[in-house]
Amino acid sequence: MPMNASPSYSSSRSPKLLERLRDRICLKHHSLRTAQACVLWAKRYIIFHDKWHPAEMGKAEIEAFLTSLAVERNMTASTQS
């Protein structure tokens, strides 16, 4: 996101989790494509766990998601990284 661009959310509400994630990634000067990919994977993770908030999840949920990717989608560890 360019320095002079305003965030995609209005000032009347607090930004949602995925908006904050995208903004944080852009703030760290990663590309827009990287930010989009990270948001997509975060969304997949949240949906996999029936829309639990990530703050309510821990190591077991991360392992379950990664195992699901490996078993059901045949993704290698390097792809998951």
Structure explained in plain terms:
By secondary structure, the protein is an all-alpha fold. It has one domain (17-80): Orthogonal Bundle (DNA polymerase, domain 1), CATH 1.10.150.130. It is 57% helix and 0% strand. The protein has four helices and no strands. Helix 1 runs antiparallel to helix 2.
What order do the helices and strands follow? HHHH
- CATH architecture tag: Orthogonal Bundle
What's the end-to-end separation, in Å? 24 Å
Low-confidence stretches: none
Strand tally is 0
Helix residue percentage: 55-70%
Indicate the topology:
Blueprint: H1 17-27, H2 32-48, H3 59-72, H4 77-80
List keywords for this structure.
81 residues, mainly alpha, DNA polymerase, domain 1, 4 helices, 57% helix, globular
Give a quick precis of the structure.
By secondary structure, the protein is mainly α.
